Amino acid sequence: MLNELVTICNDNGATLVAVSKTKPNSKITELYDQGQRVFGENRVQELVEKFESLSKDIEWHMIGHLQKNKVKYIAPFVSLIHSVESLGLLKTIDKEGAKHDRQIPVLLQVKIAQEDTKFGSTDTGLIGMVEACNDYKNVEVRGVMGMATFTDDMKQVRSEFKFLKTTFDKLKSDYFSDQASFKEISMGMSGDYKIALEEGSTMIRVGSLLFGAR
Ligand SMILES: *Cc1c(COP(=O)(O)O)cnc(C)c1O
Fold first, then answer.
1. Which of 17, 34, 53, 199 could anchor a disulfide with 205, C-beta 3.0 to 4.6 Å?
2. Residues 13-66: pLDDT tens digits?
3. 3 state DSSP class of 176
4. What's the CA-to-centroid distance between 214 and ligand 1, angstroms?
């Protein structure tokens, strides 16, 4: 499965994030030995433990809900935080980035699932983050991330991915046109990564297809 996913990603110019949450180091090492270097976790403690015990050339991505008071534990080493969903969190990441004299790469999480109340309406939280990010010298906003509704209705999933792509394009032209590093659209998981790539994903986050059910 890894080779198949890597090929699809290469064909689409996308990055494969292997989502290793709840899986033991031995499983991660199996994929590492086949060349995979980018892994995603959704809990801070697990992320830190795995970072400390595994090879230092792994790029660790934080993909889950992140509490402000836990940013400090991952600030020294995290390669990308996908799930920045509030101005307060962005500000905290900036502060912790400054302590470690680094720019922490982040994605702004966009509410794309139709069950989210902000779907389709002006997301003031998102705009607030975008407008503030020039003030935050220790974060680097690399793009957006979204999670589609958990449903078998692939038409709905596709329309939510289209919405994220449109949102990305609009932010790019309105706010980030001179920033080449604003280029990532993190969307697509085990059940919907093919649709996500068709709709312009640059980063898919795949867990169960690679590691088996959790
Ligand atoms: C768990 C998780 C994934 C991977 O889900 P699979 O369906 O196992 O591929 C992707 N993104 C986020 C944010 C997750 O929490």
1. 17
2. 999 999 999 999 999 999 999 999 999 999 999 999 999 999 999 999 999 999
3. coil
4. 10
Residues present in the chain in total: 214
Which numbered atom of ligand 1 lies nearest the CA of 211?
Answer: 8
pLDDT in tens, 169-214: 999 999 999 999 999 999 999 999 999 999 999 999 999 999 999 8
Q: What are the φ and ψ backbone dihedral angles of 177, each rounded to 5 degrees?
A: -60, -25
In a mutational test of the pocket of ligand 1, which residue from 42, 150, 164, 203 has the highest number of ligand atoms less than 8 Å from its CB? 42
CA–CA gap between residue 214 and residue 205 (Å, rounded): 15
**CA 165/CA 147 separation, integer angstroms:** 12
CA 116: distance to chain centroid?
18
Name the residue among 3, 43, 36 with its Cα closest to residue 17.
36
Sign of CA dihedral 18, 209, 199, 128: negative
Helix (H) or strand (E) holding 186: strand 184-186
Ligand 1 mean position, distance from CA 40 (Å): 9
Tell how far the Cα of 41 is from the centroid of ligand 1, in angstroms: 9
